[in-house]
Amino acid sequence: MATETVEPSVGFRSERGPILGALMLATALVALDSTIIATAVITITSNLGGFNQFPWLFSIYLLAQAVTVPVYGKLADTVGRRPVILFGIAVFALGSLLCGLATSMIGLIIFRAVQGIGAGAIQPMTMTIAGDLYTLSERAKVQGYLASVWAMSSVLGPLIGGVFSEYVSWRWIFLINLPLAALAAWMLLRSFTESAPRRREQRIDYLGAGLLTVGAGALILGLLEGGQAWEWASPTSIAIFIGGALMLALFGFVERRAQNPILPLWVFTRRVIVASSLVSLLVGAILLGLTSYVPTFAQGVLGTGALVAGLTVGALTLGWPLAASQAGKVYLRVGFRSTALIGSTLATLGAASALLIDEGSTLIQIAASCFVIGIGMGLVATPTLIAAQSSAEWSERGVVTSTNMFARSIGSAVGVAVFGAIVNSHIGDTDHPAPAALSSAVHLVFVAVAVMALVMVVAAAMMPSRGTNPA
Description:
Blueprint: H1 17-36, H2 41-48, H3 55-79, H4 81-100, H5 105-133, H6 136-167, H7 172-175, H8 177-191, H9 206-225, H10 235-257, H11 271-300, H12 306-334, H13 336-354, H14 363-389, H15 394-427, H16 435-461
Helix pairs in contact: 1-5, 1-6, 1-8, 3-4, 3-5, 3-9, 3-15, 4-5, 4-8, 5-15, 6-12, 9-10, 9-15, 11-12, 11-14, 11-15, 11-16, 12-13, 12-14, 13-14, 13-16, 15-16
């Protein structure tokens, strides 16, 4: 008897397989960028100078990403996902080219902002498109595919970054994005079309976006330059913080009256979105704190090379996707809240173990702490996002996804600014901090990470037990 062949609903052999492949490649752009640059900090600052400015390489990128994510989310719900993600890939490629050609730290920081503007479209759009194409149960499988991108990037990113830094040139850390971006755009153009209705009559809230950019930028400027360019209690410092706070307050006022706000206030009325966004904010801060300072600790305190330092923090970004690939099975069985609680508790335990790291620690000890934290992150980050997506209609899903991504990006930007302020206040104005001073400063970063992980447990407890489908 002939047996009927059933096409897989999820995977490369399915009808949606080419789109999944394109989304994975687009994700790889952001995933590689998140791991490949951390191993090159010492090399870049040795070449361009400005060790105390290196947190800007992360903060400016994340700030640009954070403030543009809501714009892209609104645009995606207005004109569709395809043009938004293609625009993001093009801008990200341009920023990568400019970074690879930079001749000063200031120039590199500015060009990282261009990269961030592109990344602000790529990351939320890949998740939004996946949310459009796949059902809740299918997304549990798709999550494994997307998580595999982060898994490969967690190994290849530090490896490639270390090889380029030590044996070729740190500039190729950015230039390698160009062929990847071209291939991702080509695959999306070939495989992805949209049939959902578009609402072109809506206007984008550019005033809100501008106020958010200025307000958040002022706060980050005050954190990173306080104690360096000016004293913390100086009139300049006070004016910057007050000005930033006023801009953010004005942003909230504008959003209340805007016809199509960039960050609709209704997102704060839904428990699942508030809880998932708070988790996402903390995830972003913890991730950047570790990926920024673990390689710096390994190189500046333990004396390892860029390649070994990158592989050490790679344990964090390896544990994350390994857990995320199985998180779908877990939340389908025990619910979103239980999965998030398990993950946040593991992250807290890993962060607590990092408090034992000092000048006499081994790389294995550091990698083990990072791996446990990564496992926890994998079980808390994606399930909370999917819970929020599952509560939204198609016309809201772009905003819901971008709100979650915005929270992660702003958490990363503010987090790395806070960590930078802590470290800079201890090492002073030097491009070559002493190992003992650097070790003491980074220990305080680990303390802050542990506190954030504890708060994440509380945020996870706020999640509903299971997703709520839209009415």
